[in-house]
Amino acid sequence: MTDTLKRIDPRRPFTLTAQGLKRITLGAVRDVGEANAGSVLPLDARHAARLDQPKPRRTTATPHHVLLVAAHADRGALDDHARQTLAGAALIANADTEVVLLVFGEFTGDAAALGADKLIELPMFDRLTYAPDDELNALAACVAAYAPAHVFLPDNATGDGELGRRYAAAANASVATHVVEIDAAHVCSYIRANTALASRTLPDVVLLAPNAVDPKLPFVGAGERVAWRFDREADGTVAQSVVRDLGIDEIDAARVALEEADFIVSAGNGVSDVPAFELLAATLGAAIGASRVAVDDGKFTRDKQIGATGKTVEASVYIAFGISGAVQHLQGIKDCRHVIAVNLDASAPIARRANLTVVADAQETIAALNEAAAAARASRATAATLLQPGKLAEGVLA
């Protein structure tokens, strides 16, 4: 079995790829066939092998139909789930259909590389502000302007899934949620406690489950940015919102559930000074995780364990101190965006998963970071003292 083939549940639905619908079963790739692949574009194997060549445009024909993809951006980028949703729309679009991407929040990525033909950016919406009515009005205005055949959103708990359901209810549109299989002709969702699949033709609104689509595309979109002005008062259909934003409450990072934490520092067998590690976590404002070995040794409570036998996390930044990276632990951090490993063994499994590996002793690195943080705090305190009235002249004379 090659490294590109994953051993997964053989009963899972097919995944939409550039070659069509595929399923990986015990290391063997099985095709659904051209008949069931809809209008999915074939992938030239020779082109895939030569990644140095520019990818072709998906289509240059005059568009007559539209597929609309809406998603929230995070720090200027789309997460994996949103990219999969956009790729799904691009893969099932035919030659006379364009894919329009509507981004709530600032977007600094390459929309063309992700498969979008047009990009509409709404930077006034961000994850720090909860404005469901305004977002619903913006989505409805975009649908009215482009009249898409179908609207696609990631089915997540961070705003997209809720927006899709609210729009479907407001527009009296057909909708399919938790879609685990999709092509140009049908969608499927689990029913009966995930023991059976329900299938239907593509509805007006498709809420896609994660990992139903391979986001690797053999083509690019046009990537045209469209200037869009959205006036919340002029375009709003709701006279007065029943939702009131109470703002953001900051809490101690140690109180945040690991499944919800955006920044995690995790300790393994290479961490011996637990108080120093906890001090670093508090300084960085990060939640604390641990490997199974560290938990079994009694250094951390069981609720801190990360891995297949513990908790699965989706942090934007995950720093692993002294963790070798057992298969179970890597399974628990597979959805983390940026992984930094601090380990003496440069060939440890965690190093292959990490975006950055620091080959150093974990305990010495923790001590050095604590010292650097203490020095930075002292420097800021000194500067603040000198800027106080009556202290500036004294400091200069000294």
Automatic annotation (TrEMBL):
Domain of life the protein comes from: Bacteria
Keyword field contains Nucleus: no
Gene3D superfamilies reported for this sequence: HUPs (3.40.50.620), TPP-binding domain (3.40.50.1220)
Residues in Electron transfer flavoprotein alpha subunit C-terminal domain copies: 258-334
Keyword Zinc-finger: no
Domain Electron transfer flavoprotein alpha/beta-subunit N-terminal: 66-216
Family of the protein in this entry: Belongs to the ETF alpha-subunit/FixB family.
Name under which the protein is recorded: Electron transfer flavoprotein subunit alpha/FixB family protein
Organism: Paraburkholderia translucens
Lineage of producing organism: Bacteria, Pseudomonadati, Pseudomonadota, Betaproteobacteria, Burkholderiales
